[in-house]
Design goal:
Blueprint: H1 3-19, E1 23-29, E2 46-51, H2 60-73, E3 80-83, H3 89-98, E4 100-104, H4 107-124, H5 129-135, H6 141-167, H7 175-202, H8 216-223, H9 228-246, H10 253-272, H11 274-285
Parallel strand pairs: 2-3
Antiparallel strand pairs: 1-2, 1-4
Length: 286
């Protein structure tokens, strides 16, 4: 499929989700067999569906068949559709941690679902459950989840740096190295967006407009909730993320490599300054 055809199919898919009012959010994520490669082409990924409150269909099998047929008609052929409410914690965790939210109506509900999924995954699946549980100090689910996002941000930026140092000139020709770096960049950006939403929720103004939740960094910049220099550099990182995510088929790796050092620096600064930033937001709110 040509790039323009794929873009048209993706636009039709998003319009389809918007018409389906029972759909709250959709994640694009890699199947278990490709989990290390990240989500790229729609046909080789899974689609995770989150329903609106009370929107779960009584006959989910028939609903899935109808949705799959509608996706076929708009040119989206191949992805497996997963109903996230009915999925195990491990699968839901993979959807939100390794995938990308491509559609949502209310970011607050998405944030709640992510936090709930993370907690269930930690309690039931993760070998570090006891360690994380011992770190909880009664500050609540959102605080625990935000700290997990900060740790994820640290991990992904460290992996990018280590991969780059180990690859050297092989970056230009080694597809495995390229995929690893791009995947970790997308995951670091997702963790950052989660932190933007969390920080926005802690500001006294909060989201003033529904569109704020779709562009939390833009709202934080408008509210002056981030240092201007850091905000500008994070905005540049998000633009790089969009190039990687939406123009993958025609990606200029030289451009990515040129901007990676400054992107890593900005992401690491967000992670290391999170406690200070969140405390400032809570103090202003109080």
């Amino acid at each position: 499929m040509r790039t323009d055809d794929r873009a048209t199919a993706a636009e039709r898919m998003l319009k389809l989700f918007d018409r389906r009012t029972e759909i709250e959010a959709v994640w694009l994520f890699p199947p278990r067999s490709r989990a290390s490669a990240g989500a790229s082409a729609i046909g080789s990924t899974d689609l995770g569906i989150l329903f609106t409150a009370g929107g779960t269909p009584p006959d989910s099998s028939a609903w899935l068949e109808r949705l799959t047929a509608e996706l076929d008609r708009v040119g989206v052929i191949g992805p497996r559709v997963v109903l996230l409410e009915q999925a195990e914690a491990t699968l839901r965790h993979r959807a939100i941690e390794r995938g990308q939210a491509i559609f949502f109506r209310d970011m607050t509900k998405v944030r709640e679902f992510r936090a709930r999924t993370w907690m269930e995954y930690v309690d039931r699946e993760s070998p570090t459950a006891q360690r994380i549980a011992s770190m909880r100090t009664g500050t609540g689910l959102a605080q625990d989840w935000a700290h997990e996002r900060v740790e994820a941000l640290h991990q992904h930026t460290e992996r990018i740096g280590a991969t780059l140092r180990g690859a050297g000139e092989r970056f230009a020709v080694d597809r495995a190295v390229q995929d690893s770096i791009l995947f970790n960049l997308l995951q670091a950006c997702q963790a950052s967006e989660d932190l933007f939403v969390e920080l926005l929720a802690r500001t006294p103004e909060g989201p003033e407009d529904p569109m704020d939740e779709r562009d939390p960094l833009g709202a934080l910049i408008r509210l002056g909730a981030l240092p201007p220099d850091l905000a500008g550099r994070l905005a540049a990182v998000m633009r790089l993320r969009n190039v990687v995510l939406y123009r993958y088929a025609e990606l200029d790796l030289g451009v990515v490599l040129k901007h990676l050092p400054s992107a890593i620096e900005a992401l690491e600064e967000l992670a290391t300054s999170w406690d200070e930033l969140s405390a400032a937001g809570e103090g202003a709110a109080g």
